[in-house]
Write a structure and sequence with these properties.
Number of strands: 9
Radius of gyration: 24 Å
Strand content: 15-25%
Helix content: 25-40%
Shape: globular
Strand order of the largest sheet: 6-1-3-2-7
Order of helices and strands: HEHEEEEHHEHEHEEH
Structural class: alpha+beta
Oligomer: single chain
Length: 266
């Protein structure tokens, strides 16, 4: 999933007239009334996207991840490109301008259909919209790594409720993206060039490793030291980088240059 997300064409998501936001959609306390099965939850998300498409036509581009709370209720994290200005809400004489945060809150409450005091509480706490101030590439990388985090204390986030574990009641998809296509380019290289490129990428990755403060034994006591930490512990065949196309082009040219220099070497 991380590889798929990082190979997407981000131009629909990185719009100049919009800002990146992380939107979270949750359900009321008695959530089983509204999402007794995975299909019912998927239907709620489809209704939300229908309203989003009507309000912002031809502008949907998002990464979507469904997780589960400790109480078993599903909730959805959506990374999307949100409008920076006020947006219209309502019809006729009731039409008014609201912020995108309020628009999400009101529309999601309409989709869920809670009534009375539950409706008021759900409008207040049923959604969350957090602006993202960084670049689109960093947002996608952060979101993808967040979505596949493997903390033992948060294993419940990927564990569906008991009612959804029965045959035919589960969720068919928890990860998805829309409005963006993958960009994959392949270039044939020799075995020698491939080995050379792998060595360069390993050195590049080692030089970019993050650091962490740890306590180590030093004689009779301990002290804090800074050590590099590798974020990718596997020796797999790919790396997540900020600007993959530029790095790939430079690496390709360098590999051919090294190969040509070795061919003319006496």
């Amino acid at each position: 999933m991380l590889r798929a997300f990082l190979s997407l064409d981000l131009s629909p998501l990185a719009r100049l007239d919009r800002g990146l936001s992380m939107v979270t959609l949750t359900l009321p306390t008695d959530w089983e009334r509204y999402a007794s099965t995975g299909a019912a939850w998927a239907a709620l998300l489809r209704k939300f996207w229908q309203r989003f498409d009507r309000a912002f036509p031809d502008r949907r581009a998002a990464l979507v991840k469904t997780e589960f709370q400790r109480r078993g209720a599903p909730h959805c994290h959506i990374l999307l490109s949100a409008p920076l200005t006020l947006v219209p809400f309502g019809r006729g004489n009731a039409r008014r301008l609201v912020s995108f945060r309020e628009w999400v809150s009101l529309k999601w409450a309409d989709v869920v259909g809670a009534e009375g005091s539950d409706r008021a509480a759900h409008e207040r706490a049923g959604t969350q919209v957090k602006p993202w101030s960084g670049a689109a590439a960093s947002a996608v990388s952060y979101y993808a790594k967040y979505a596949v985090k493997g903390s033992a204390r948060r294993h419940y986030q990927d564990d569906p409720p008991v009612a959804w574990k029965q045959p035919g009641t589960g969720l068919t998809r928890v990860l998805s993206h829309c409005g963006m296509s993958r960009m994959v380019s392949e270039e044939p290289v020799t075995d020698h060039e491939a080995v050379w490129a792998q060595r360069i990428l390993r050195r590049w990755h080692r030089s970019k490793s993050e650091t962490v403060r740890v306590r180590v034994d030093r004689g009779r006591g301990q002290r804090w030291v800074t050590r590099p930490v590798r974020m990718l512990r596997s020796r797999g065949g790919w790396l997540a980088v900020p600007d993959a196309p530029s790095l790939a082009v430079e690496l390709h040219h360098a590999a051919h240059y090294v190969a040509a220099r070795e061919r003319v070497r006496p």
